[in-house]
Amino acid sequence: MKALVMQLNDNGQREKILIDDWVAPPPIEVDQIRTETLYSGLTNGTERNAMIGGNYSPPDSSLPTSGGYQNVGRVIEVGTDVEDIVIGDIVYSSSDHYQYCNLRPHNLDNLMPHQRHDGLFIKLDNRVDLTHAALFGVASVAMRCCRNADLKVGHHFLVLGAGMVGQMAAQIGSAMGAQVTIVDIDQRRLDISSSTGLIQNVVNVSDDGWRQIEDGKFDTVLDVAGVVGIEDRLIKAVKHQGLILFIAGRFKVEYTFNLGQHKEINIKQNSHFDKDDLANLQRLVAEGRLNMATLIQDVVAVASAKQIYDKLRDYPGELLGTVFDWR
Asked: What is the pLDDT of residue 128?
């Protein structure tokens, strides 16, 4: 079957390409379904981390391998014990960039680690554009962050980084009633944030832009940029006893202890997402309360994926929302 697979090229660089002979999934079990992929979404942060050998990337010895967690497929087989899903349904699942996927649509309770994708799955509302659903993974990570932040109406919420997770977190935070400021050094991405019509403030923090946010007014700061050495600036941005949330992509967090102690800061770490995050995201998208269309920059045939991945490895700032078309 077809799959997007990461391997080493002749120069020892990691690349990701479409191949035709990846091992097909086994026959479905009675509690499984099989889907044929229509679209899959690029997970900019996670897949770039893998492409450059980052802090949670697979070792060279494990290559070739796939990787990804945003898949939209049409159900083509249904096990005899599966309820509420029929052939022809369209589903999002936390699955790799594979042509065919076997899914077990039950809850995630009591699963072994190798089964973590099982159950992380939702039947798509017919009001949801399928290209938007192909980015439900990164958007659900953003939902997880915002729910962890326990945002309230009127909270001042600072999002550092206007990539896909940051853009969606800013929109979701606004939908939850927070007053949102998103910052980046890429003016193009900030212009996209402004164009959504859903984010109150955008700030370019190149040069002296930090002066606008180091005033201790924010209840919560979410760092999805992972810039080395940024932690003290984030502490200066939060209120006394404010909350700072970190997510992935970094090897360690280091900050001036006395600065943090003076502010009595709270720190949380964020990880993946669960079915509640996915369901809440879909509800907001279906109701038209989030603007994903503005964030989708490229919808490309899956056969052209190598060019996208080369850009992700070497010029990641040129990408935003990217969807692969498998039809």
From this structure: 98
Q: What is d(CA 33, CA 86) in angstroms, rounded to the nearest whole number? A: 9
CATH number of domain containing 56: 3.90.180.10
Contacts of 126 (CB under 8 A, 6+ apart): none
Environment class of residue 60 by beta-carbon count within 10 Å: exposed (0-12), middle (13-18) or buried (19+)?
Answer: exposed
The ranges of the chain with pLDDT < 50 are: 108-117
Q: Kindly state whether residues 76 and 43 are assigned to the same domain.
A: yes
Q: What is the pLDDT of residue 106?
A: 66
pLDDT at residue 271 in the model: 82
Domain that holds residue 300: 3-135+292-325
Phi, psi (degrees; rounded to nearest 5) at 35: -120, 150
Q: How many CB atoms lie within 10 A of CB 179?
A: 19
Q: What are the start-end ranges of the H helices in 101-185? A: 130-133, 136-149, 164-175
Return the pLDDT at 12.
87
Give the DSSP letter string of 83-109.
-S--TT-EEEES--SBSEEEE--S--T
Q: What pLDDT, on the 0 to 100 scale, is given for residue 215?
A: 83
Q: Which two tokens stand for residue 49?
A: 């981390």
Note the pLDDT of residue 57: 85
How far is residue 203's CA from residue 191's CA, in Å, rounded to a whole number? 10
Compute CA distances 57 → 21, 47, 117, 120, 249, whole Å.
23, 8, 18, 21, 10
* The predicted structure's pLDDT at residue 193: 96
